[in-house]
Amino acid sequence: MTIIEVPEGWPADEREARAVQDALRARVSLDEAGPRPGVGAVTGVDVAYDDDRGLVAAAAVVLDAETLAVVEEATAVGRVAFPYVPGLLAFRELPAVLAALGALRSAPGLVVCDGYGLAHPRRFGLAAHLGVLTGLPAIGVAKNPFVHAHGELGPRRGDTAPLRADDGTELGRALRTQQGVKPVYVSVGHRVSLDNACAHTLRLAPRYRLPETTRLADRRCRDALTAALTRPADPGSADPVRGVV
DNA sequence: GCGACAG
DNA sequence: ATCTTGTCGC
Question: What cofactors does this protein use (predicted)?
């Protein structure tokens, strides 16, 4: 487990954060198909919080894209650097996620985020932001609707309904990953096509509604948070609870 | 102005 | 995100 470091120049308020999004948005690459589903590595990232103590824990879990077997995992713990504001989630989650990703020894391959990519108020959600900062191909798979409504979609696994911007642009898709469950919301982050993002999501969810990447990352970051609360001060390393770094 | 609002 | 037991269903 590593200690989170907040990147230089991290925004201090909402106005600065929106300006960062508007500035970085142009760096998103939308002309690449991205990694082929089932080939190489796929990494899930997720974050858990202890609001009372202002603590955050992140996990990055690397899977073999073909077998979905765990290849490697890393966690990071530290203090929360930004409040939760709809549309600015990345500023709350990224410091922790970047720390966990940075602790990996193996190549992450495609990164699967909990949340949105382009289907965002300024078309620059968590997955797009992570992709731009790391250069890695990234997609967003959210559990709940956000700013874009969608029509009904079929009941079978693989059925979709588009998430459209006002100008008609398809920014994402509601995707049914299992029969009889609510859909997940897939959107492109960086260097991946929407078709490919949906194909990856389906492959990663052979049994449950959510992709194995997010299920595993969710489990690991919760464990890391519990461990940080249980075993606060690690002699020899900094204490994330007290913020001594 | 009011409500909605990823995690 | 997080607070939380039992319970319906495969």
Answer: Mg(2+)
